[in-house]
Write a structure and sequence with these properties.
Blueprint: H1 6-15, E1 18-19, E2 22-23, E3 28-30, H2 39-47, E4 54-59, H3 60-64, H4 68-73, E5 84-88, H5 92-104, E6 109-114, H6 119-122, H7 134-148, E7 153-160, H8 168-178, E8 180-189, H9 204-209, E9 214-217, H10 223-233, E10 237-240, H11 250-258, H12 269-287, H13 291-309, H14 315-327, H15 331-350
Parallel strand pairs: 3-10, 4-5, 5-6, 6-7, 7-8, 8-9, 9-10
Antiparallel strand pairs: 1-2
Helix pairs in contact: 2-12, 5-7, 7-8, 12-13, 12-15, 13-14, 14-15
The structure holds flavin mononucleotide (FMN).
Flavin mononucleotide binds next to strand 4.
Length: 351
């Protein structure tokens, strides 16, 4: 007879969430961020224990029209499974076609963007603008579900357009009815953009409106904020965006703190340096030169800020290293500055 350790079984259940037939590794997901979570960054987060990683937003129409930039966004570097592609758009037929192409490119899950506040996206009635028009949002979800075939579809949204138009519970209910299997809510309205604080408690209205897993997002940067967000919202998992900039391993570290055994132990400074240098190499390989050199700059600058926050660098040192790193166009020169930086950091740590 097989014995079940119920405590372990139940804590295992708690540690990950189901997206239809797909399971996350744990309950800390990396947020999609255009210009940040490209394939190399996602690979870094994934090998360091993130529960799920999602592509940058891909315009469904441009993907369907074969625009190279969108195909690049919808590609994965390593065999990261499940592979989640996020689509944005406003026209059902293009979103359906976009979902079909994403499936052909290997997507296991399709996520729909209804959270982007940018005028370019929201102004064209996609992204967060869809929160104002639940019927249109529903038609879009139905189209993506059709295009996705047997792949589960998820939805990422904000609370609504503004404080007077909190439509998230309604949109969530409609989306669930149309077959969406997980809903992430950034606890801000569109008109807040990134101002103010994310309202995790307001996310509870969505948790109570649907029975699919809800993920709480916005301003989660450490264990305390993650625990408070989970408690206030009643959500099944957290999603972290900016909190992972400069430290793609943070999602896995946070998962480990929330549920021991589900993520990775805190990386030592030496391990962080190795990961940062590997990210740099992966960015060069993925984007090629000179784009890769330019794209990697912001990641290196964020890493410096993290090391300052951890007490390894002063503000002046951050500025000096940044100036040296962003000045260089030749990847070999950047590599050699990174080598010097590694030496300086490890010396500081040993002191
Ligand atoms: C630079 C940047 C790019 C973003 N791009 C996307 C995107 O492509 N798709 C999306 O759904 N959200 C996008 N977001 C929103 C994040 O996924 C997340 O909802 C938001 O940043 C709040 O979470 P945080 O406080 O943990 O960063 C982006 C945010 C940032 C800062």
């Amino acid at each position: 007879m097989m014995l079940i350790n119920w405590a372990q079984f139940l804590s295992g259940q708690k540690m990950s969430i189901s997206i239809g037939s797909v399971r996350t590794r744990n309950r800390v997901l990396l947020a999609p961020m255009a210009g940040v979570t490209d394939a190399p960054f996602r690979a870094a987060a994934w090998r360091n224990g993130a529960g799920l990683v999602i592509t940058e937003m891909v315009a469904g129409e441009e993907l369907a029209r074969g625009r190279k930039e969108m195909e690049r966004r919808a590609r994965s570097l390593a065999r990261i499974r499940p592979f989640v592609v996020q689509l944005a758009g406003r026209e059902a037929r293009w979103m359906e076609e976009g979902a079909r192409i994403a499936r052909d490119l290997g997507a296991d899950v399709i996520d729909i963007n209804m959270g982007c506040p940018s005028r370019m996206v929201a102004g064209k009635l996609s992204g967060a603008a869809l929160m104002r028009d639940p019927e249109r949002a529903l038609r879009l979800v139905e189209a993506v579900v059709r295009g996705a075939g047997d792949a589960p579809v998820t939805l990422k949204m904000r609370l609504g357009w503004d404080a007077d138009e909190i439509t998230a519970p309604k949109v969530a209910r409609l989306a669930e009815g149309a077959g969406v299997r997980m809903i992430t809510v950034h606890g801000r309205t569109r008109n807040q953009f990134y101002r103010g604080r994310a309202d995790w408690k307001a996310v509870r209205q969505v948790v109570e409106a649907v029975s699919v897993p809800v993920v709480v997002n916005g301003d989660i940067v450490d264990e305390a904020s993650a625990r408070t967000a989970l408690k206030a919202s009643g959500a099944a998992a957290v999603m972290v965006g900016r909190g992972c900039q400069g430290r793609p391993w943070f999602a896995g570290e946070l998962a480990e703190r929330l549920d021991p055994g589900s993520g990775v132990a805190p990386l030592s400074l030496a391990e962080q340096i190795v990961e940062t240098r590997r990210l740099y190499e992966d960015m060069l390989a993925f984007h090629g030169s000179p784009q890769g050199v330019r794209i990697a700059r912001k990641h290196l600058a964020w890493a410096l800020e993290r090391w300052r926050d951890a007490g390894f660098l002063s503000d002046g040192e951050v500025a000096a290293w940044r100036a040296r790193l962003v000045r260089e166009d030749d990847p070999d020169r950047v590599r050699s500055v990174l080598g010097e930086l590694a030496g300086a950091l490890l010396e500081k740590e040993a002191a």
